[in-house]
Design a protein that fits this description.
The structure holds 3 protein chains of 3 kinds.
Chain A (H helix, E strand, L loop, with lengths): L2 H7 L15 H14 L7 E5 L14 E4 L5 H11 L4 E7 H7 L1 H10 L3 E7 L2 E2 L5 E2 L23 H8 L3 E6 L3 H13 L4 E6 L15 H11 E2 L6 E2 L1 E5 L5 H5 L12
Chain B lengths: L9 E3 L9 H5 L5 E4 L2 E4 L10 H5 L5 E3 L6
Antiparallel strand pairs in B: 1-4, 2-3
Chain C lengths: L2 E6 H12 L1 E6 L6 H10 L6 E4 L3 H13 L3 E6 L1 H17 L3 E9 L5 E5 L4 H6 L8 E3 L4 H18 L2 E7 H5 L1 E6 L40 E3 L13 H17 L1 H4 L2 E4 L6 E4 L2 H14 L4 E6 L1 E3 L3 H11 L3 E6 L5 H9 L4 E6 L8 H10 L1
Parallel strand pairs in C: 2-3, 2-4, 4-5, 5-8, 7-8, 12-13, 12-15, 15-16
Antiparallel strand pairs in C: 1-9, 5-6, 7-14, 11-13
Helix pairs in contact in C: 1-2, 1-6, 3-4, 10-13
The chains are: A alpha/beta, B alpha+beta, C alpha/beta.
Chain lengths: ~260, ~70, ~375
């Protein structure tokens, strides 16, 4: 993280952050800050909303208006914020469990409304904060503290899910592909509609140690080797959808007027 | 914050280092090493200033550039 | 004296809310509260206000809190099962001190219960529905006119004390139509604003225990979390800070308790027997008192059922040397527990309970009184 950005956008008295050694959340947050810095958004009109979980602690580290909400509900809170004050640039920081399990309903309805909020999902394939239970994005057969013999359930593909639910900007990146990731997040900010960037990020402590990759560097190499910019069977990274469609708040405010009687 | 010498193009804020080893594993020139669980600059003359360490450090410990305290 | 309008209880709630300054409503359809959402969706845009139908009650509550943080007076309305779903985020609003009004139109429960029938089964849920120690204000109007004016009060309290206020209606008064005189002068309170943006400490309270509230997007750049936090708004594990915060959350209501409680004494001058009732049952009891025309029986109506007007009730009991109290309610006995706590054995306390989904009738109550 560039020191000038650190000083400019972080609450230095809240650092160092709580994330474990080798956790990629710090890198993902760094990329988000770089994208914010590259954007033309008024920094007083930025609002960070997060849910509960490791990734959601990000909101408290940034020097913006920030809201650390309840588990799974970040997008719902963000919807209220954006509709109440359409001037705000609303950025949701959430995790795979927060966003797709307990918050799955709010995710798909945010996508459906195409409300102009930017969702950054730090996907580490595990519930880290509670000690490593399987999440909706844990790969099949991966071992977790609630699937010690290997996860039997199938995975969500967050990008496909969001795309089919109606999100107008959908992308996937990794914390290893840092500059690429910054570009993806900038793309999300540019889209006037529901944007989601799935950020693949390693959890060496809760995921890696149970799955033969306890070393952060090994997890990072795995991220590099298991992803690809093209359709070659690996996990694809890049932009999957970037289209313009009617956005909820701008459509809604067309209905507003001042014709109400003062004495109701 | 951190140690900064004339010849070092990078600075580190060692207090924040959690010793994950990502910087030392990915530094192409072996400039960064772990010592007693925290990062240290060892061969600063080899540094080519690529900035990979700055980007990959999840704990915001490593900074590129010379004028950071100026 | 203003204009008199015939309106439904749920309608009175929306009109009162808009009069109080409500400019945001998020909700989810549920009987018997749905008319509130329907009318809010129609009326709010005419006042430059926003309405959104969310995907469930949980997100409705969340959206309301988000909107309130942006400076809009915000409300949601629900019933029974939906009220249960809102509880976690009601606790969040308590902890983060974000003003909002939550309407619960009580219907028969538990579970889906009797969706179209009246009940008063949420007395305890309205007080203790969310987990953890938390202060709360619950207002239970009796008539349609009460609903209009007490919705305004609910907003006033919520804004002044930075607390979620629960407005407890029931299927009967929510669906009843009555005439309401719309007064020209109504007191409207707004939340306190910080005097400056410099070194803004979002949770540094004034003497009254209430911190002035900034809003998002105005350059305060503050953090809000449901975790235990210090004056800066950031999470802390300090046991000292935790205790300080929880103590203050309760203190701000205790300090203003006398300004908050609302109650009515009806023909209690010489009574030795007292009926205590709230909501639509209170109006049935008024009818009872008028019918029996016996000044030995009086009626006490708590409008704020939380905090309960305990001091006021106790002083009435002592002054009149009350011998017996009847507590009719549409449940198996919830408010009676609070009455028993206050009475503390000083006199007899008897419940009159009905939970069939129908409103209790004056005849039924009179029968109980005569039985002795």
């Amino acid at each position: 993280m560039r020191i000038e950005l650190l000083n400019k956008y972080f609450k230095m008295d809240q650092l160092p952050h709580i994330w474990c050694p080798g956790c990629g959340n710090g890198i993902a947050l760094g990329a988000a800050v770089e994208a914010i810095d590259n954007s033309t958004m008024d920094k007083d009109k930025i609002c960070i909303v997060s849910g509960i979980g490791c990734s959601s602690r990000a909101s408290g580290y940034l020097n913006f208006d920030s809201l650390h909400t309840t588990h799974g509900r970040a997008i719902a809170f963000a919807t209220g914020i954006k509709l109440a004050n359409p001037e705000l640039n609303v950025i949701v920081i959430t995790g795979d469990g927060d966003c797709t399990a307990i918050g799955g309903n709010h995710l798909i309805h945010g996508c459906r409304r195409n409300i102009d909020i930017n969702v950054l999902v730090f996907n580490n394939n595990i519930y880290g904060m509670t000690g490593g239970q399987y999440s909706p994005t844990t790969p099949r057969n991966a071992r977790t503290s609630t699937s010690r013999q290997g996860t039997v359930e199938r995975q969500f593909d967050i990008c496909k899910l969001s795309e089919n639910a109606g999100a107008t900007y959908v992308a996937r990146g990794t914390v290893f592909h840092y500059k690429h990731l910054i570009g993806l997040i900038e793309g999300a900010f540019k889209n006037k509609g529901f944007s989601i960037v799935e950020i693949l990020t390693p959890c060496p402590i809760q995921f890696g140690r149970r799955n033969k990759t306890p070393e952060p560097a090994d997890m990072m190499r795995l991220l590099k080797n298991s992803t690809s910019f093209s359709d070659d069977g690996k996990t694809k990274i890049g932009v999957f959808r970037d289209e313009k469609e009617p956005e909820f708040v701008s459509e809604y405010i067309k209905l507003l007027s001042n014709e109400g009687d003062i004495s109701v | 914050m951190g140690e900064m010498g004339e010849s070092k193009p990078i600075a580190i804020h060692r207090d924040w280092c959690k010793g994950c080893g990502l910087c030392s594993a990915f530094c192409p020139r072996g400039v960064l090493v772990l010592n007693l669980g925290k990062v240290e600059i060892q061969n600063s003359e080899n540094c080519i200033g690529c900035g990979l360490c700055e980007r990959i450090c999840p704990d915001y410990v490593i900074y590129l550039g010379r004028d950071i305290y100026g | 004296m203003g204009e008199a309008l015939l309106m439904q209880g749920n309608e009175a709630c929306v009109r009162g809310a808009i009069r109080a300054g409500m400019r945001f409503f998020a909700g989810y359809p549920i009987t018997p509260s749905t008319e509130i959402a329907e009318l809010a969706s129609l009326m709010l845009p005419k006042y430059n206000g926003k309405f959104i139908q969310m995907e469930d009650e949980i997100s409705s509550m969340a959206a309301v809190i988000g909107a309130s943080l942006c400076g809009l007076k915000a409300m949601t309305a629900t019933s029974g099962p939906g009220f249960s779903l809102k509880q976690e985020n009601i606790g969040y609003a308590s902890m983060t001190e974000i003003p909002c009004v939550v309407v619960d139109v009580m219907r028969g429960g538990p579970s889906t219960g009797l969706p179209t029938c009246v009940s008063q089964g949420d007395v305890m849920q309205s007080r203790w529905g969310t987990h953890g120690d938390h202060p709360v204000i619950v207002i239970a109007p009796s008539t349609v006119k009460d609903i209009y004016y007490m919705t305004i009060k609910a907003f006033n309290y919520s804004e002044r004390y930075r607390i979620p206020v629960i407005l407890l209606l029931d299927e009967v008064n929510a669906h009843m139509r009555e005439s309401v005189v719309i007064e020209n002068d109504v007191e409207i309170w707004d939340r306190k604003r910080p005097l400056t943006r410099e070194n803004h400490k979002p949770y540094a309270a004034d003497e009254d225990g209430v911190p002035p509230m900034g809003e998002f997007g105005k350059g305060y750049r503050f953090h809000v979390t449901g975790l235990v936090h210090d004056e800066t708004g950031h999470p802390t594990n300090s046991s000292e800070e935790a205790e300080k915060l929880i103590r203050r959350l309760h203190y701000k209501l205790e300090k203003s308790r006398d300004d908050i409680v609302i109650y009515e004494k009806f023909k209690t001058e010489r009574c030795r027997t007292l009926i205590i009732a709230f909501g639509s049952v209170a109006r049935v009891c008024k009818d009872v008192i008028c019918q029996i025309n016996d000044d030995s029986i009086g009626l006490f109506i708590p409008y704020t059922i939380w905090p309960f007007p305990d001091k006021e009730l106790l002083s009435l009991i002592q002054k009149n040397r009350i011998e017996r109290i009847y507590v009719p309610e549409l449940n198996t006995g919830q408010m009676i527990l609070e009455v028993q706590r206050i009475v503390f054995g000083r006199c007899e306390v008897l419940g009159i309970n009905k939970y069939s989904g129908e409103l209790i009738t004056p005849t039924e109550i009179i029968k109980c009184l005569r039985r002795g």
